[in-house]
Amino acid sequence: MSDLAAAFDRGAANYDLLVSLNPGYHRHLGSAATVLVRRALARRTGARLLDLACGSGASTRALVDAVAADRPPGRTSARTPAEAPVAILGVDLSDGMLEQARRKTWPAGVEFRRGRVGDLDLDSLGEGAWDGVLACYLFRNVPPDERDAALREVARLLAPGGWLVVQEYSVAGSPVARLVWDLVSWAIIIPLGVVVDRNPGLYRYLWRSVRGFDSTGAFARRLAAAGFEDVRHRTVPGWQRGILHTFVARRAAR
């Protein structure tokens, strides 16, 4: 895992540029963030949101934008006369990615912290303190034999009835999705990693990690085993259909 963090540190400076070349990347992040924000703010207006594997802050920005869209300036709220602020904490293992995130301009209530999912400081973060957790492109980076424990850890962070939204690549069990992923990886993603970032190892790892991740059904079963209910998943439109998936799950109320 330290080698992976070092690879992301090395690629941090060019990461935003590379992901911006992926059609739909920010749109799909925004869709996942909107799903989480709507559910979390339905629980309480002063929601606390955790962005795990926040990277350079793209998913954090998606959360900020989703909150702003849910409560536009000047709107009279039926919830409370003055809506409580939303707190967002981004957590990532890569110091380089966190440095990129902190350089950006953020509204009050947004903070960043270093941490490794599966070995988080639950006392510091607060067990049961979070209304929603967003985890984009995280769990395929967690070793398979640690994945169940990592999901149980996330469940412990959520308040009873809190929501988890996971956005992740999965091609297992779909020969067509695997073929498309292989072609795009070797024809576009890895060459761009060489030309733009001179860091091909990170993007070859991306290709391998997606091929080795759980099927959507297997990951849904992991979520249920970790204590989540109402588990749902759907794929995205566009070229990543059948490749990129959004999972939505709720921590059991008790």
UniProtKB/TrEMBL annotation:
GO terms for molecular function: methyltransferase activity. The keyword Methyltransferase applies. CDD domains: AdoMet_MTases (cd02440). It comes from the Bacteria. One of its GO terms (biological process) is methylation. InterPro entries: Methyltransf_Superfamily, SAM-dependent_MTases_sf. Keywords: Methyltransferase, Transferase, Ubiquinone. The keyword Methyltransferase applies. This is Ubiquinone/menaquinone biosynthesis C-methylase UbiE. It comes from Salana multivorans. The lineage of its organism: Bacteria, Bacillati, Actinomycetota, Actinomycetes, Micrococcales.
